[in-house]
Amino acid sequence: MFVKRLISSISILFFIWLTIFVLPNWFFGFLATSMIVLGLFEFYSMIEKKGIHPYKYFGMLVGVAIPLSIYLELQLTKGWELLFITAACMIVFAMQLTRRTDDQAVLSVSTTIFGILYISWFFSFIVKLKFMANGPALVAFLVFVTKSADMGAYALGSLLGRHSLIQRISPKKTWEGALGGLLSSILIAYLFRRFIPQLSIIRILYLGAFIGVIAQIGDLYESLVKRDCQTKDASGLIPGLGGMLDVIDSILFTAPIFYFYVKFFL
Q1: Is 256 strand, coil or helix?
Q2: How many CA atoms lie within 13 A of 49 on its CB side?
Q3: Which of 4, 122, 194, 217 reaches 20 to 30 Å from 113, CA-CA?
Q4: Is 114 a residue whose pLDDT tops 90?
């Protein structure tokens, strides 16, 4: 399992590196949108296992529209995403009225909207980052620092993990692993410091630590969702890693936070 996970992680990161720096922007937009669609499909499929019936395909359609509107700069007004999400909420409310039964009406609507916000809107911030000044470097910094937290936590936790982090959510996650993830994110942030030259080394280290903590919170939250749905992995799409949602879970939390950090402080 460790070897499969390592090979899959290195392959994905190498492909992302090519997508960021070598392949054209349209391919980056296509890849981000595809990851959102797969993540949404896995999320809604897990929810269905609980006996809840979200509006899966409508949620996926809206999930595609959000990153595409950002990539194509289809901003009809300031705060376009909020207008878009508000309209989506109203449509879901109207769709619920057409169902023959009122059973789980609140759950059906709320899980549909939650999936759009949690996966599509949060991950779309990585598309926003790509088209900022020095965007490719910013995206690379975010992705590699975030995923290094995942890899460091898994590696050190597997080798030295003894003390459970939050037993009720993920019994295999340990405090030793959390420390490994934190140290890994700080190290990678230091190695990638030239990608954000306007920051001092001290601020880079602080930023690496902050992203490392947020990344692990994102990973824990997805573990909470899977545990609630009584599912080990979001899917078996990627050997050793699980599904697409298992790959992007930490980025869902770090992308919007890093975007706003760049926007307001850099």
Answers
A1: helix
A2: 17
A3: 217
A4: yes
The Cα 202–Cα 242 span in angstroms is 35
Contact 148, 179 (CB under 8 A): no
Whether 85 has a pLDDT exceeding 90, the answer reads: no
Q: How far is CA 256 from CA 63, 119, 122, 262, in A?
A: 16, 11, 6, 10
The residues spanned by each domain of the chain are 2-265
Residue-wise burial string across 115-127, b where 16 or more C-beta atoms lie within 10 A, e elsewhere:
bbebbbbbbbbbb
For residue 152, how many C-alpha atoms fall within 13 Å in the half-sphere facing its CB? 24
Task: Quote the DSSP letter at residue 238.
Answer: B
Q: What is the DSSP letter of 163?
A: S
User: Can you give the three-state secondary structure of 15-78, one letter per residue?
Assistant: HHHHHHHCCCHHHHHHHHHHHHHHHHHHHHHHHHHCCCCCCHHHHHHHHHHHHHHHHCCCCCCC
pTM score > 0.70 for this model? Answer: yes
The predicted pLDDT at position 124 comes to 92
